[in-house]
C-alpha cells in the first residue's frame, strides 16, 4: 500500500528518499542562506534585465573522511517544468579543492579546477545560467549543494543528462552541504 502521508511529507525534497549522509558546511561571499540572489546571479541570457549569469562564490569545510572528490549543483525545484531546472552541474572537483571563485562557471570551463567538468544546464548550454523565474510566478528556491564523493572521478559522458549525473553522484555520496537562496521577478 502506498503511504500517501509519507509522499506528502517528502514533497519535492530532492534528498528525502536518499540515504542519509553526514552534513558539512558551505558558505558564499555572494549570497547567504535564505537571502535573494544578487542581480548578477540572475540570467541575462534568459532576458532578466541586469542579469549576468555569474556563478556564485562557494567555499566548503568539514567534509567527511573518505571524501575523494566533490560535485556542485544548483537546482530550482520550483521551475514550472514538472522536473525543476538545473542551473549548474559540476563534477570531478579534486578533494583538495574547497572553494570556487565567483564566475567559475563560465561556459568554457576555464574557471574550474583541472580535471573538473560541467554539464549542460537546462537552458541548453554549458556553465552556470542564472535565475529567471517567470514574472509573477512567486519566489523560487535555488538549492546549492556540495556533494562529497567517495570516488576520485565519475566516468560519465560529456553529453550526460543531469539525471544521469545525479544517479552516479548519489550512488557515491559520502557527505552533503547545502544552502538555499531565492529568486523572484515581480509582475
UniProtKB/TrEMBL annotation:
What the entry lists under InterPro entries is as follows: PEBP (IPR008914), PEBP-like_sf (IPR036610), YbhB_YbcL/LppC-like (IPR005247)
Q: Which CDD domains match?
A: PEBP_bact_arch
Q: Which domain of life is it from?
A: Bacteria
- List the Gene3D superfamilies hit by this protein, alphabetically: PEBP-like
Q: Name one Pfam family in it.
A: PBP
What the record says about family reads:
Belongs to the UPF0098 family.
Q: What is this protein called?
A: PBP family phospholipid-binding protein
Q: Which organism is it from?
A: Enteractinococcus coprophilus
Q: What broad taxonomic lineage does this protein's source fall under?
A: Bacteria, Bacillati, Actinomycetota, Actinomycetes, Micrococcales
Amino acid at each position: 500500500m502506498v503511504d500517501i502521508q509519507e509522499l506528502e511529507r517528502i514533497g519535492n525534497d530532492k534528498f528525502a528518499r536518499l540515504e542519509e549522509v553526514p552534513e558539512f558546511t558551505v558558505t558564499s561571499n555572494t549570497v547567504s542562506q535564505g537571502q535573494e540572489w544578487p542581480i548578477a546571479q540572475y540570467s541575462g541570457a534568459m532576458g532578466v534585465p541586469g542579469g549576468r549569469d555569474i556563478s556564485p562564490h562557494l567555499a566548503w569545510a568539514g567534509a567527511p573522511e573518505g571524501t575523494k572528490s566533490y560535485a556542485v549543483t544548483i537546482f530550482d525545484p520550483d521551475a514550472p517544468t514538472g522536473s525543476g531546472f538545473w542551473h549548474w552541474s559540476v563534477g570531478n572537483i579534486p578533494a583538495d579543492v574547497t572553494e570556487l571563485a565567483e564566475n567559475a562557471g563560465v561556459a568554457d570551463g576555464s574557471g574550474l579546477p583541472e580535471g573538473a567538468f560541467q554539464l549542460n544546464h537546462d537552458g541548453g548550454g554549458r556553465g552556470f545560467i542564472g535565475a529567471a523565474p517567470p514574472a509573477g510566478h512567486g519566489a523560487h528556491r535555488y538549492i546549492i549543494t556540495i556533494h562529497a564523493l567517495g570516488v576520485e572521478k565519475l566516468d560519465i559522458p560529456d553529453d550526460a543528462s543531469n539525471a544521469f549525473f545525479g544517479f552516479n553522484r548519489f550512488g557515491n555520496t559520502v557527505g552533503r552541504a547545502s544552502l538555499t537562496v531565492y529568486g523572484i521577478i515581480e509582475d
